[in-house]
Amino acid sequence: MIALSLNKTSLRWIILVGSLMMTAFIFIDLEILPPILQSEYLKSRVMFQIPTMLSLLAFTYYKDFEKYQQAAILLAITVVTYANYWLIQQSWLKAEFAFSYEGTLLYTFFAFFVVRLNFRFGIAYVLLSLLGFGVLVASYPIYGAYSSVNFGFVAMAQSICLVGLYTLTNSLKEIDNLAEKLHKLSRIDQLSGLYNRRAYEQDGHMQFEQARRLELPISVFLIDIDNFKDYNDAYGHQKGDDAIRIQAAILKSVFQRPMDVIGRFGGEEFIVIAIDMKHSAAEAMAQKIIDGWSAQHIPHGKGAAGPFLSCSIGIASIVPKKDITLTKMIGLSDVALYKAKNDGRNRYQTHLLATE
User: CA 67 to CA 242: how far, in whole Å?
Assistant: First the structure.
C-alpha cells in the first residue's frame, strides 16, 4: 500500500531539514539586504517562520497527530508564507526595497511535493497565498509596473503545481488500487475463487494462534468431491471445472463468517479453518455441505460412484494447546476424510481431539 501522506518519522526529518535550510538562508539573505531591513528579516525568520516549523515538528509527537496532519501542515505553511509577505511589506515601507516573492513558490513546492499536502488542502493553500499576495501587490507598488505580471506568474505557477498535485495523487491512488488488486489475485485460486495455498496457510495460522491465545475451539475441515476423476474423465474437464466451482459456491454459502478461512487444498480437495466452532457446530456445517450437493442433483453414475455428485468430509476439532499445530490438525482431518470415504462416501467423519 502506498501512503498518500508521510508517516510521522519521515515528516519529522523533513521538517527538521527544512528548518535547518531556512536557518542557513538567513546568512545568505542578510548579505543582500540593506542594513535597515536586517532586524525585520530576523523577526520574520526567527520569530515566526522557524518557530512555526519547529511547532509543527513538536505537534507530530501528539498521539492523534494523524487526524490533524493535513490541517497542521496547511496552517504552518500559510503562517510561513504570510510571514514572508509581512517581510516584503516591511522591506518596501522602510527602504522601498523589493524583496523577492519567489519564496511563495518554494513554499508551494515544499507543501505539495515534499510534505504531501493533499489536493483539497492544496487548493486552500493556493487561495490563501494568492489572497495575501494579491492584497500586497494591490496595496503597494513594490514591483512597479510588473506587479500584475508577478501576481499572474505566481497564480499560474501555483495552478500548475495544483494540476501536478492532482495528477500525482490520482496516479498514486491508481497504483495503490492496482497493488491491492494484485495482492488479492496473488491469494486467490482462479478456478474456485477461494483462497490458494499461500493465503489459507497464512490466514489459517493467524486464526489458529488466536484460538490458542484466547482458548477458543477451532475446527478444520477437509472436503473432497467423491470419485471426481471418474466424473472428470466421463464428462470432460469443463464439467469437472464446473464441479469445482459448485463445491466452492456451496462452501461459501455455508461458511459466511468473516473469520472463516476457505481455500482450495488442491485438485478436488478443499479446506476450511473455522475459529470459535465446536465439534457439534462443525458437524452441523458438514451436513449442510452434504445437503448442498444433494440439492444440486448432478448425475454421476460412473465407475464406483453413486448416482449423483457428492462429497466426503473429514473434521478435526480442538481447543488448541502447545503440543498441537495447524499442520497436525490438517493431518487428522485427512485421516477422518479417509475414514469417511472408506465408510461409503457422501458423509463426514470427525476426529475430536479434546473434550469441549
Answer: 49
